[in-house]
Design a protein that fits this description.
The complex is a heterodimer. Chain A is of the alpha+beta class. Chain A is built from 16 helices and 17 strands. Chain B has a two-stranded antiparallel sheet. In chain B, β1 and β2 form a beta hairpin. Chain B starts with a helix and ends with a helix. Classes of the chains: A alpha+beta, B mainly alpha.
Chain lengths: 528, 315
Amino acid sequence: MMRSRLWLAVACLLATMGSAVAQKQGGTLRVTHRDNPPSASVLEEATISTLMPFMAVFNNLVVFDPATRENRLDRVVPDLATSWALTDDDRTLTFQLRDGVKWHDGKPFTSADVKCTFDMLSGKVASKMRKNPHKTWWFNVKDIATDGDDKVVFHLNDPQPSIMALFAAGFSPIYPCHVPAAEMRTHPIGTGPFKFVEFKQNESIKLVRNPDYWKPGRPYLDAIEYTIIPNRATMLLAMATGKFDLTFTSDLTPELMKSLQEQAPETQCVLQPTGTQGNLLVNRERPPFDNEQIRRAMVLSIDRKAFSDILSRGIFDVGGVDLPPPEGRWGWSKEFMETVPGYGADVEKSRDEGRRIMKSLGYGPDNMLPLKVSTRNIPDYRDAAVILIDHLKSVYIQAELEPLDSSVWYARLARKDFSVGMNIQGISIDDPDATFFENYLCGSERNYTSYCNADLEKKFHEQSQMKDLDARRKLVWDIDKTLQMDAARPVVFHAKAATCWWPRVHGINIAMNTIYNHWRFEDVWLDQ
Amino acid sequence: MLDYILRRLALMVLTLFGVSVAIFLLLRIVPGNIADILFDSAGMIDPAEKQQITKDLGLDLPLVEQYARWIGGLAHGDLGYSYVSEKPVLDEILPRIPITARLAGLALLFAVCTGVPFGVISAVRQNSWLDYILRVFSLLFLSMPSFWLGLLVLMAFVNWFGILPIYDKAPPTWGAFALMLGVPAATVGLRSSALIMRLTRSSMLEVLRQDYVRTARSKGLSEGAVTFVHALRNAVLPVITTIGIETAFLFGGLIVTETVFNIPGVARFLVEAIRWRDYPMVQNLVMFIAVIVVMVNLIVDIAYMFVDPRIRLRA
């Protein structure tokens, strides 16, 4: 035992020494990309398709320590802010900013840029941004003031311990005030380790090393090139032959990962939660789904284990709104989950209850409720929707699949033009302040089902102000349980997928509880 | 002869006018307001932007005026603006044209260079084992879907040679460049090749039984001269017609091949533009493809004159 520990310690030491001395400068990192990003503006999009390639162009005020695998509040480290301090009443947060930082166009970075970014994000000033999907994250920001060029002060309505996690999120980079929003969508300018070169629609994205990067010696790579390969079979073959160094994050299902490692056993892969969850959307403003009983019966029909088994051979997790443990910090424990209706092991019992409800409303085997399940016309969505349709039959609902092109799907979601939908949605930070406010706050842009519960909203704010983690977790679990029982947007599964790379790539550190971070590539180097 | 060419040119202009009207009207009778669709698919939320789109596209103008503006823009090289990529349509299309043109040209060349000789061989050696093999292969290639064939070809290259001939902006060697061009072209051209082969064979079989072929043989001409000078020249007319028609079908095959081989060409781009309801892009790309198809058919019509003196003389 003692000997094995000694070997382990020596191995760790050698690995650390190896990585400390062996970094090589230069080379182009070649990465596959799954589809065409809607734009290059990280603040305006909520998709990893934009975040992964363009995160390296920017910096945040603070970041989650890129050297650790878990994004959590106590691992927030400086980025453009060198330090920060809260006043005694926890309502004033002051950031001291890094000196001498320049935007990629040579202009100096100042506190005005920080103010301008967060004024825009919190909706305090009119901006030319087309979308602002994370506006609700900044619900608590009363105002922002600058104190000279190197200090910025955030005044909060209430104490909010988690706000530092929001500042550290991949979707919270600092934008330059002097660059119009339209230009940021096509030619982003940041302070980050890589400069934007070109974004060819449906073809490629190229970034090059920022020689004036404020972090000495970084980045190691000369350039990063993303090639858009929508066809997964082609992507897999290209990766297996070594044409690329790294796959797009979580682009490989467990089956595809296995296939790649059979073809190229040297490749390294990490299978992790993607931060995306499958959820059922029921438009509560459209009859008959304005009837709470029908929504409840629909929820009771869902066999979550079957979803996981069919879609991933049991690899997907089951849970509520927040990512389940061990990767997630706020998700339900197994014991608690058993107490939530519809999550118990006895699915038939739940379905009996669902059938009873539907019978009381006049439906039955000879009089099934007809409906359309709308979904995005890509395999991940379609497969889940087909399983849902099968489950709904068990409570006398005869559903028909309505596959929609991506553009139509998002437009219909935004207009709430659907009755029932099968959705897959990314949750970019493992923190209830992000999940609750983004998806369940009355009037939030991404609250697709228009769920609005004033009492629960008070609890959203209450948990947000709590410092005691255990007490907060307990309240978060209760809120989550209420959301599931209200069929606000019933969560069906938490997906997992793999990211793979060749051993010549060093310094990749994928967070275990999100795919929406750690893509700055400043510590990544190529051994070639 | 000049009269014939001028007549064909006039017909081409008339056809293009018809096509442009059809494209213009079809895009306007699909359900939904174009401004609404563009607004949603480009992810805009500010209603002022919707009004701007309506104004930019002239959707508030009468249909005839809208059409005239579009055609006028085309004539001046102004293809409009893509609201999804936020770039001029021309800037998006232009770099992709040479990529697709090269692929389509090579595919046609492959189809003709393999289809015609194999068709001739198959006809000359009618009912021999070689004829049977060629006919079986031609049927096989005709019935194989492009996407499946493309994937098979890629897998074969990976398994046998350890290389993947997909698109590369800067191929490392000339060999890689040749493979990158040749393999997708052969894949997309295989179907056309099979069709041309079958057509050449049947046409040759008919011609080889004609009196003038027998006369040529009796004059003591070599079998090669009889086959290629006397028979093939007369048998090739329907083949040329088919090449013109195949150009249109080729675009269908290109969409799939460009996707499988990850080639950033016009065909794949058109599918993406349709997916994102990028109307200015779709309208101009479809028009561009129509122009190519019509022009190829014009070239085919002109080629008739050189191959068949009867057409030349009649003209």
